Each structure stands twice: as C-alpha cells, then as structure tokens.
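Here is my example:
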Amino acid sequence: MGVKTIASLNFEQRLPRVAASTYLNSAPLIWSFLHGSRRNQVRLVDAVPARCADLLAQREVEAALVPVIEYQRIPELAVVPDVCVGSTGRVRSVVLVSRRNNLKEIRSVALDESSRTSATLVKIIFAEFVGHLPTWTSYSPDLPRMLSENDAALIIGDPGMTSSREGMRVWDMASLWNDFTGLGFVFAMWMTRLDLSAQARNIDFAAARDEGLDRMEEIITTYERSLGLSPSDIRTYLTENISFRINESMGRGLQLYFELARKHNFIDELKPLKVGFIAGIGK
C-alpha cells in the first residue's frame, strides 16, 4: 500500500463520515462506497450496528446504518426513505437459540451486544405474545458462553448465520414476528442528523443500494471466502431472506414495533418518522 500524501489525507478528512457494519446483510448497501462508483464520496467507518448508533448520537459521523429502535432514542434524526435491512419472512441471521423447546420455559436470555433492534424485538415478543419477561444480560457474540449461563441466546449478523446450533432449538426472529403479527420487519435503516452537512445531503443511498444489488456476484464471491458459506446459500440469503426496500407490510411492521416498544416501556416516547432530504429524495 502506498503512503498517502497530505493532500489525499486532507481530502479524506473533508468527506462525510458514514458508519455501517460489514455484515453480509449490509453488503449491497455499502458495496458502492467500498468498491463502486461512490468509493471516493464518503469515509466509511466499519462498526457493529450498536456502535453505529453511538457514533451517530455522538456526532462522530454524519450518517449511519442504524438499528431502527435507536431512531426513537437518539434526538434529531431523520431516516433515509425506502433503504433498509429487513425481511418479509425468515431472515436467518437474527436468531434466538436455546436448549429448551418452548419460549414459555425460557427465564434468562443472553443478548448479543452488537444488537439493539433485535434485542428490543426479543423483549417485545416475550412481553406482548409469550406473557412473561426473562432476565436479560448483554454478551459479546459467543454462543457457547452465552448458553452456558442462560436459557437462551440472541445472536445476530454473520455470527447468527455461522455459529453451530447442533442440538439446539432455533427461533428465527423475523419469522417469529411474522407468526405473531402477520407483518414484515425492518432491522436497520440509514439515518442522518437533522443538522447534517451539505456534503452528506448529496449521498444517494438508494442509488448506492441499487449498484450493490447489480454487483451481487462480486459480493457473493467476497463473502463466500470470509464466511465459508456456499454461493447459492449467500445468493438465497441476499435475494430471498433480506429485503433492502421497504414494502407496505414492513412499513406497518415498523410502526407496530415502535408502538409495542412504547407500550412496554422499552422506549420513553413514540416519535413519528422524519424522512431526510437526501439526494433529492423525500422532498
């Protein structure tokens, strides 16, 4: 790798800072910024979803791919419309794993510390539909340790797909939500500060998504090596399990999720969604 000049470093420092995880489920949303036509338009910060929310809250980035529950917790945010990480049914990478066979038997849950939307979703499922609240403890995503100390473990992202679950009962959280509500689910969306910089306003996140989806085969090749999954498995995941656009069912699911989070006091208030004026969208 060549030594960067002062001029190139100054150029990078002037670019809007954008945070996102490099989990497989966000790969089509960030491919354009890493490898495509927008790779010189932003400074991409690699962080797990929970950390992305913290970076945005602390004004260390201008935009981030954020767990949706954090919209209700962080003041003065706007969402980028129609671009998301969501699912209309089985998501595969957000799972509750247990040696017990019935949700009613679960009294303690280890929560993946990378997660916030999914952690709240698990709590809502128990409070609203199962009828009791287990105890909760946050852990790094280490399934054997999580289950050695708890009845169940929530694990998300790439570890949620690749961790061994032999002999375990696995509940897919998007499927479980759909079973109880009949609706799709939104896990994360691009969000920005309402006082975002002029540079950040020009980032076209929808076009970046579309470019990433067009380069699906390159994404599959890259993640096949790093995750050890087959190309067909990755392709199915990105084209059938994950949705990168919000349909009516997912939009209604998002609203119900927020309402139930407020009902059970997992958020302090219920804010209506504010759509950001990003690259001419939402005007």
The beta strands are 17-20, 43-46, 63-67, 77-87, 94-98, 108-112, 135-139, 152-156, 169-172, 185-193. The longest strand covers residues 77-87. The mean pLDDT is 90.
